[in-house]
Amino acid sequence: MPVRARLWSRLLAPLLIATVAGGCVVADPSSPSGVAPSRVPTTAPSPSPIPSASPLPVAGGAYLAIGDSVTFGIGVSQPRRAGFVAILSDRLVTVDPAITETRVFAVPGETAAGFLDRRLDDVLLAIEELGPRTELVTIGLGANELLRIRRDPACEVDPGGEGCASAVAAATSEAASALDGVVGGVQAALEAEGSDARVLVLAYYNPDVEPAAATTVVGTDGIVSCDPSDANPGLDDRIA
């Protein structure tokens, strides 16, 4: 029964009960007034209680996906269904406690420096809005700084030369510094809101076989490591 109908039923119930409880009036021909001196008692049903409103479900946790084209889902036929963020979101709903909300802050082609300057504020506002509900943050930035090195004149002329190596080192340092700024800003905001969310920074795959590309990702030693003595670390070394 609709709420309005139940309300009217409750308001009218006393009147209906009073009428029924009075009984049926029986006419008496011998009575001068034509009305019987007594009434036939009847039993009135008790009014049904109005059910209370169901409590609103408690909101689950939230997942924030920050990044570039990889996070956005470029390269798959249906990014919103087949991208890694969509797949991960489907699984997070099943964990305990469940993470039921996903917000994507991803722009194809975005650099770490660009995100830091133009888009980080949007993420910080979301963290403030969600408060301690934020349970997971993934960050995938920095690759576009490095991919652009392939168009650097020094790398186009001699990808394995010293000029290209210097350009790669500068781009890697710029990307890592901006990425540190994004991660630091996110962590500070989470702490301010009382969230103990896990922050995961994504490593990158090697997009091609050019020496410059390999160097930017894994450094001159060709492996991902956390070795502080590595003279020329790649982006994944910095992330690790």
Describe the protein's topology.
Elements: H1 3-21, E1 61-67, H2 69-72, H3 79-82, H4 84-92, E2 99-106, H5 112-118, H6 120-130, E3 134-140, H7 143-147, H8 153-157, H9 162-192, E4 198-201, H10 211-218, H11 235-239
Parallel strand pairs: 1-2, 1-3, 3-4
Helix pairs in contact: 5-9, 6-9
Summarize the structure.
The protein is α/β, with parallel strands linked by helices and 240 residues long. It contains 11 helices and 4 strands, in the order αβαααβααβαααβαα.
Mean pLDDT: 77
For the largest beta sheet, what order do the strands appear in spatially?
2-1-3-4
Spans of at least 5 consecutive residues whose pLDDT stays below 50 are 1-38
Number of helices: 11
Number of strands: 4
Which of globular, elongated, flat, extended, rod-shaped describes the shape?
elongated
CATH topology (level 3) name? Rossmann fold
Helix content: 40-55%
Structural class: alpha/beta
Gyration radius, rounded: 35 Å
Q: Which CATH C-level class is it?
A: Alpha Beta
